[in-house]
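User: I'm putting together a teaching handout on how multi-component assemblies are represented. Below are the sequence lines for each component of a complex, exactly as they appear in our records. Could you produce the 3D structure of the whole assembly as structure tokens, so the students can see both representations side by side? Please keep the chain order the same as the input.
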Amino acid sequence: MTSILFVCLGNICRSPMAEFIMKYMARNRDDLYIASAATSDEEIGNGVHYGTVGILREKGIPNPGHRAIQMKRSDYDKYDYIIGMEDSNIRSILMITGGDPYGKVHKLLDYTSKGGNIADPWYTHDFETTFNDIYIGCEGLMEALDGKA
Ligand code: 4NP
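Assistant: Of course. Below is the structure of the complete assembly, with chains in the same order as your input.
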């Protein structure tokens, strides 16, 4: 079993979107455990943003429901991959974990030729661009995982 934690600032827009896209891509396999969490405590307990729900519905990707949780230090031991959306997430993740001795922490778009950060639709209101970037990131991550299998 390979475990993956997607992480963003609030855990209501980008990281749950990544969780549901990756779960959809992995729907015919049972060797991946996929979850998401926030670096901040801003949205703890809140549901997925309606913009994220809307774009997932438009793309035909199930949104099984979710409540925002905050990442904990112990998640570093629990997960094989901890995937942030942007540079500031990576800095916050490393603050929470106290470092990355096993090289588990990565940025999602580093699994694509494009690189860079996933824009935060909380600010941009552009859920389509964020969806497309997260989708190619998850495809790249899936290829990286299979390359290791
Ligand atoms: P997310 O978006 O990190 O993609 O879930 C945000 C959600 C909430 C806040 C910021 C970003 N907030 O400041 O509450």
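A couple of points students might notice: The chain has one domain: 2-145. DSSP finds six helices and four strands in the chain.
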